[in-house]
Every structure is written in C-alpha cells, then in structure tokens.
UniProtKB/TrEMBL annotation:
Keyword Oxidoreductase tagged: yes
Protein name: Succinate semialdehyde dehydrogenase
Key words of the record: Oxidoreductase
GO biological process, one term: gamma-aminobutyric acid catabolic process
Family label: Belongs to the aldehyde dehydrogenase family.
CDD domains per the UniProt record, alphabetical: ALDH_F5_SSADH_GabD
Gene3D superfamilies found in the cross-reference section: Aldehyde Dehydrogenase, Chain A, domain 1 (3.40.605.10), Aldehyde Dehydrogenase, Chain A, domain 2 (3.40.309.10)
GO cellular component entries: cytosol
InterPro entries listed in its UniProt record: Ald_DH/histidinol_DH, Ald_DH_C, Ald_DH_CS_CYS, Ald_DH_CS_GLU, Ald_DH_N, Aldehyde_DH_dom, Aldehyde_DH_Superfamily, Succ_semiAld_DH
GO molecular function, one term: succinate-semialdehyde dehydrogenase (NAD+) activity
Positions annotated as active site in the UniProt record: E256
Length: 484
C-alpha cells in the first residue's frame, strides 16, 4: 500500500487533539481482507480512554457551539476539500483495509465527503420559529440548539461515508463527537481525523477511540451522562443492545440497522434496466451493504428471462483484490462473513433451490466468494429472513402484485426496497404499500447526501443526509416571554 501523503496513515487514536496510545500500550492489527497481510496496528483502548475522550468532547463543546454556524461551516468546507484532494490516498487505504474495488472506493470517498459539504451548508439553516402566542401579553419563540456530546459507532462496510454522515451534521450543528470506528477499518477514520485537524477542527471536537473491545467502549459511551446522543450504524442485535443501554441515561438515539431488501421485477419491467439495477444493488461492495438486494422477487412471466440475463451479466464480473485496477468484486471482510454466506446458501440448496452460477469459495483466496445466483427460492429458506451480506442473489417467484407486496413486507426489517415496473398506476400503488424507509423505483442505487436515508420497523430510527439529517443533532427549546 503506497500513499502519496504518508501522514494519512495514522496508527494512534485521536483524543483531545493528540495522537494517543492505549494506557496499557495494547494494540491490534489491521489486515487486508484480500490476502490477510498486516497493514498497521492501532491502539486497543478501553473504558478509561473512552471516558477521557468524552470529557475532551464535553470540554470542547462550549467554544465550538459558541462559534457562528458560518464559522463552523468554513472549517467543514475546508475538511471536505481536503478529503477530495486526497481522494486517491483514501481510496487506496479503504481498498486495503476493507477490500472493495478501487473504483468503488473512489466513489465512496466522494460520497463520504459530500456529507461534510452538504451539512456545512445546512448548518447555516437551522432555523427556529416564532409562534403566534396564546395570550396578548406573551410571545413564543422556538430555538434549535446542539444536543451536546455525540457518541458515534460505525461499521466496516463504508469506512468513510458512515462516519461523515454522522460527523457532518453533528459538527455543523455545534455538537462535539467521540467516534468508535469498526475494528476492521480504523485507518480511514484516523485519516479523516488527520484531515479534520488540518482543516482547523479545534482540539476535542472530534475524538477517535480505536478498540477491539467494542462492548467495553460501547458500555462507556452509552452509560456516560455527558454523552447526550448515540448515533449507531451496524447490526440489529447490537443496535437493540445499545438502545437498551442508552435507556438509563435517556439518550437520544439514531439507529441505522440491518435490512432485508426486496428487489421486485414485475412483468412490465424494462428487463435490461432491471438486470442493471440488480447488478448494482446486489453485487456492489460484494453484497456487503445494508441496502443490498437480499431477495429478488420476480414475476412469473419474465422469471426465466431475468434469471438468464442476470447470469450473463454476473459471468462477466471480474473478481479479485480491490487494489487491482480492474476488479469489480472484491473479497468479503473476513472468514466469518464467508462462512455465513456458505451456510445460508447450503440451507437454500438443501431445501430445493437450484444453483444457476457460482456457489462456492473463489480461487482468489479464503475470503473470496463466487458471485452466485440461485432460483426456486422459497420463504421457508433462511435467505428469506436473514441478511446475506455477500454476493448471492436468491430469486423468488411470484404471481400477482398482491403476492409481491405481501412477500416484500413479510419481514421485521424496513430499510430499502426496489421495484421495476412501467405501469404508472402500479408504480404508485406499490410505492405506497411497501413498508420501507427508502424505495428505489426503476433504480438500483439510492444513496445520495441530498435524500433522507434510514429505515422503519427494526431497521432503525432517524434519518441521515438531506435537510432532515440535522434534526437528530439538535434539541428544540421553546421560550415563552410573558408580561409584554
Ligand atoms: P457488523 O455485522 O457490521 O460487524 P456490528 O453491529 O457487529 O455489525 O458492528 C458495527 C459496529 O458496532 C462496529 O463498530 C462494532 O465494533 C460495534 N459493536 C459491536 N458490538 C458492540 C457492542 N457490544 N457495543 C458497542 N459497539 C459494538
């Protein structure tokens, strides 16, 4: 791994404006999932260091929130520009520690940076209200103020964007932050902190605690009363645990959890567009996104044609290490992820699904899995209920629009759904009845900083991005002026 700016490879945590070691000097290795090679080691911190980071964030809060929104925006704008100026280095770092192809990594850096730009602008528009009062001698004013110290816990699948989606609005609103990045991908987080410091983020405004002891650090972040808000992206199980832990101090929580995205193709769909959408939605990041199509529901009339065209497109995918220039499908994050994909696929095949292509580990190495398609999948199979998080596309068959909607909604999750159809009345009907926070209609890629991203049901609470994304980081205060 070669970086043009070698100072972006930071191997210390970042607390109170200083690059820091764990109190006991403990460290853990960060590896490349494509070949298992060790890229660097970072501090393995615990409760005491987390407390110190929280206290630093609390100490930095008054001065940061006292700045004007425009002053904060200027620092964030600089940060955004620096991230883009180092896009290539970030892409290399990301591809090395996370595994995604370089082209996708470059895309994520731009996407991740866009949240900083967007919220630098939005921060200037956190308007309050003047409400016509309930008495002639009174006046009512509504203020929006930063919620305070924010704890953020992020996953490994988008090592930059999942951080900037939280840090952008939090810092723009005048909050300060303690971030615990995923143990698999701390290097991108530390590089962000390095550029944040260069952009002029004051000491203590953004703190990064690296750790393998997620439960310890998460325990402190949720128990500490100085933390007023928790923003988490990750699995539903951990999200529920953190929500429970946050109850004792009644923290505001935002959760972006698992999904079980249906991808519905109706008989009247544009078949080529549907295949292109399915490829993007299913195989991006090797299937490791929470909005990846998890169940492809295809109507009788075009089921066989869709399966054949999808198989043809899949056969052209170039599998390899993310850092090789022409790779389209990289490794999974680790062995456990590969084992889970294998188990889910074996369950489907045992229960009668048919393999169209792929189906086993890829010759590239132990963390690689062949892009796979299975047909004849039914609701009795585990893939109908569980998030695959790998490059396996299970094709379910349905008969009527009613069947498709029932199958699509038959899950406790509600993050993203997709459907392809051309009949305009059907488009409206289906869009309104899908119980999901995000619906892609004739579109397989739905992520953008300008739109609200988030789920319903057990997929989460709150929205990230768009003008709604800043709401989670402010409190509403109502002033009642009497005696006028
Ligand atoms: P994934 O399947 O994406 O690894 P996780 O929910 O396990 O999902 O991980 C998302 C983030 O949550 C990571 O930063 C991970 O370290 C963190 N995490 C995992 N377990 C806990 C926990 N008990 N407390 C706090 N954070 C946790």
């Amino acid at each position: 791994m070669h970086l043009k700016d070698s100072a972006l490879l930071r191997t210390h945590a970042y607390i109170d404006g200083a690059w820091s070691e764990a109190a006991d000097g403990a460290r853990f290795d960060v590896t490349n999932p494509a070949d298992g090679s060790v890229l660097a080691s970072v501090p393995d911190m615990g409760r005491a260091e987390t407390r110190r980071a929280i206290e630093a964030a609390a100490a930095a809060l008054p001065a940061w929130q006292a700045r004007t929104a425009k002053e904060r925006a200027a620092v964030l704008r600089k940060w955004f520009e620096l991230i883009l100026a180092h896009q290539e280095d970030f892409a290399v770092l990301m591809s090395a520690e996370q595994g995604k192809p370089l082209a996708e990594a470059r895309g994520e850096v731009a996407y991740g940076a866009s949240f900083i730009e967007w919220f630098a602008e939005e921060g200037k528009r956190i308007y309050g209200d003047v409400i016509p009062a309930h008495g002639a001698d009174k006046r009512i004013v509504v203020l929006k103020q930063p919620i305070g110290v924010v704890a953020a816990i992020t996953p490994w699948n988008f090592p930059v964007a999942m951080i900037t989606r939280k840090a952008g609005p939090a810092l723009a609103a005048g909050c300060t932050m303690v971030l615990k990045p995923a143990e698999d991908t701390p290097l991108c987080a530390l590089a962000l902190a390095e550029l944040g410091a260069r952009a002029g983020l004051p000491q203590g405004v953004l703190n990064i605690v690296t750790t393998m002891q997620a439960a310890e650090v998460g325990g402190e972040l949720t128990a500490n009363p100085l933390v007023r808000k928790l923003s988490f992206t990750g699995s539903t199980g951990v999200g529920k645990l953190l929500m429970r832990q946050s109850a004792d101090t009644v923290k505001k929580v935002s959760l972006e959890l698992g999904g079980n995205a249906p991808f519905i193709v109706f008989d009247d769909a544009d078949l080529d567009a549907a295949v292109a959408g399915a490829m993007a939605s299913k195989y991006r990041n090797a299937g490791q996104t929470c909005v990846c199509a998890n169940r492809l529901l295809v109507q009788d009339g075009i089921y066989d044609a869709f399966a054949a065209k999808l198989a043809e497109a899949v056969s052209k995918l170039k599998v390899g290490p993310g850092l090789s220039g022409d790779t389209q499908l990289g490794p999974l994050i680790n062995e456990d992820a590969v084992a889970k994909v294998e188990t889910l696929l074996a369950d489907a095949l045992d229960k009668g699904a048919k393999l169209v292509c792929g189906g086993k580990r890829h010759a590239q190495g132990p963390n690689f899995f062949e892009p796979t398609i299975v047909t004849g999948v039914t609701p009795a199979m585990r893939v109908a209920r569980e998030e695959i998080f790998g490059p396996v596309a299970p094709l379910f068959r349905f008969h009527t629009e009613e069947d498709a909607i029932r199958m699509a909604n038959d899950t406790e999750f509600g993050l993203a759904a997709y459907f392809y159809a051309r009949d305009i009345a059907r488009v409206w009907r289906v869009a309104e009845r899908l119980e999901y926070g995000i619906v892609g209609i004739n579109e397989g890629i739905i992520s953008t900083e300008v739109a609200p991203f988030g789920g319903i049901k057990e997929s989460g609470i709150g929205r990230e991005g768009s003008r709604y994304g800043i709401d989670d980081f402010v409190e509403i205060k109502y002033l009642c002026l009497g005696g006028i």
